[in-house]
Design brief:
Elements lengths: L5 H14 L5 H4 L3 H4 L3 H28 L9 H16 L5 H14 L3 H16 L10 H7 L4 H11 L1 H11 L6 E4 L3 H8 L3 E4 L6 E6 L6 H4 L3 E3 L2 H9 L5 E4 L6 H9 L4 E6 L2 H11 L6 E5 L11 E7 L14 H4 L4 H19 E11 L8 H10 L3 E3 L2 H10 L5 H8 L8 E3 L9 E8 L2
Parallel strand pairs: 5-6, 5-8, 6-7, 8-9
Antiparallel strand pairs: 1-3, 1-4, 2-3, 9-12, 10-12, 11-12
Helix pairs in contact: 1-4, 1-5, 4-5, 5-6, 5-7, 6-7, 8-9, 9-10, 13-14, 17-18, 19-20
Length: about 450
Amino acid sequence: MAAVSPARKAAFGVLNAIERGHAHADDLLRGKSVEALSPADRNLATALVLGTLRWQINLDHQLKSLLKHPNAKLDAEVLIALRLGAFQLQHLDRIPTHAAIDESVELAKHAGHRFASGMVNAVLRKLAAAPQMHVSEESPAGLALGQAHPSWLVERWAAVYGLDAARAICHHGQGQPALTVRLESSAVEAELATDDIRVVPGALLTSVCTIVSGDLAGSSALRENRVRLQDEGSQFVAELVPRGNAILDCCAAPGGKTLILAERNPLARIVACESNPERLARLIERLEPLGPRVDCRHADATVLEDDSTYDVVLADVPCSGTGTLGRNPEIRHRLNPEDLPRQADRQKAILRSALRAVRRGGRVIYSTCSLEPEENEQVVAAVLAESPGARITPLGTRIEELSAEGVLTASGALRLQDCITPEGYLRLLPGVLHTDGFFVAMIQKLG
């Protein structure tokens, strides 16, 4: 059998593991098989994995139409070889047609499907010769197919936010997210320049830069934690948290927001909770440079024992993640409508627990990276209905405070005010500010 390039072999292995539900793309792309590749091969493997996942729904639709038996169930390895080849043919202009087809055929053979390799060859050659598929995006169904998103999700977004916003969300989900970094100091920007890494200022935060070109992974600034990779919207959520002397981050892993809380509150006592032992271990390692300032605890945020203990609580709760489909494209293939009520039940329990933990007069910041009302305003409304001693604090005032402190760029402050809902919540929609999608509510405990 002919050899397969290291990048395609690694991408095939990652996609196969994802298809079988063994792990998430983000974790697998940091695994040994990918890390062992050269920088060029690592970049190609990453592009192949994420691109194939982003376009899978559209690719499967086209491939099905070219099969002799469209309803036949294909072995996972054969289907992945077809998807990889189809993605390269349709979305990677620099990949020669023969390389995309021939190596997909070899991947099927290497996986033990020699008899199916002929079918892989025939289908991909038909696809290469066919005109590009064009789908009108003037309806939710057409938008879902054209932009490779589940139709049930797109229909929801169009109903809640309008078709134009749904279109912006979908197009954002098909692109590579901006590579944004938080700078330890302004001097780090000059250091990056000496490493031939070109940056532009962040859209929202003065402490953020967006990487335009260069190898950040090979820079000493990243290795030595003078810059941190984190979506700008995610960083902004942490900036919204008011200052306090005692702060609880009740769903802290992976720790990016906890680090910002520590930066913003250098004298505070911070408790960071995580219920998953493996994630807790990584959290402890990441926060270790902060020493005793942060107390990392193995704790379930739905049943916190603390009562009226903290000035501020951040409840950045586990959620469906539909605001991060560009960064985590496999979510769209795993999520089902019935998952949302299950998520909401846990989110309500965490918010109730957070309200118990905060002192009278203190504030709870509830946030998700979800676009779904069941996980956002409906959770807040349900818990507030049970909590007469709590009220919403509109976030527009907090944005004005951050602007006055110089935390926000001038244009960012103006654009963020447009993201405040009539109830005083903050909603960041993907495709509007070039961040992941987030929902944030601030709640004050009065009694």
